[in-house]
Please model this.
Amino acid sequence: MFQCRLINIFLCLTIGIGLSGWTNEYTSQSLALIQQNPTNGKPLKQIINPSLKYPDLSSFQNAIKQSACLLKSEHVYLFAPQTSAKEANIIFPYLTKAYETLREITGVDTEFIIVVYNFPKGHPDAWGGTSNCAIWYDDSNLHLDRQEEWNNYGVPHVSGYIEEMAHNFVSATKAQFGWEAMGWSLGARVCARVAGNPHLAQSLAQTRREQENTFRRYIALGFTFPPEIPPNLVDRIHAYLLRQCEKRYGTDFWKDFFRQISRRKEDLVNAARLKNDDAVRNERYRITIECLDCLPGLHFKQTLQQYGISLTTDVKSLHPMNPTWNRKLS
Model:
């Protein structure tokens, strides 16, 4: 997960989330996969990831050794202990609204239905991140009575879910820039759009100040990532640059960027044929930079060169967690 999590405070009055279009399921029946009709010419519909260990309510209940509930929409499923069914119903509309907003911006659906697991705290599968369209959280976000956001504002803490969802949308587009900076930045945008409020704005501003301070230290040290900052936070630099793109380009930045990405879809997909993970990642990074550079007024390649950032090698391919990394981005 991205290290600088947003503190999520969402005002229910700022979003018009209807409760139609999703259902509760409290029985142990399996989830029915949405199947494609290959002859009708319609877009493929999503299914849940067939490799999931807990694809249905019964398997999830067996995993947590207690009764559970399952909430379902067309694109998002949420599993939770039955004891938190009320809280799950409060949170779920935020997740469906976030999915709709992310799809509107990126122009794609995630590879699979987003499955949100809320395990009892301490469960070994509650590792706090996302992989292959599943979000593996414990049930802390369901304890609304312990949340400052809920107690003071009557809104649940959901920003972590939205960020994880955003990572899956970025993955679906094959765009590559930074470690998790693109997903974090997109998630921040959606948080503000879906449920902006002063507390969220303050938290987001603080995170961006940290990114900016890190960037300025990077420049002062001769384009060297500051030694006092853990290497897994290296794409604070990339998040800062993406924020500058947003500010310079305007409100349509993300939508126009992903429109450029969609035009390079074939090239991004074909990158998977390359020989190793670094090569695949670097090719997608190169294409992503070209897409950013296509947006009027950004001069993105020039910006990267100005700040000592490679045009051909993604930061993850520099292996910053390796002790031998020289803290350069070129």
Summary: Strands lie at 23-25, 68-72, 76-81, 114-119, 129-131, 134-138.
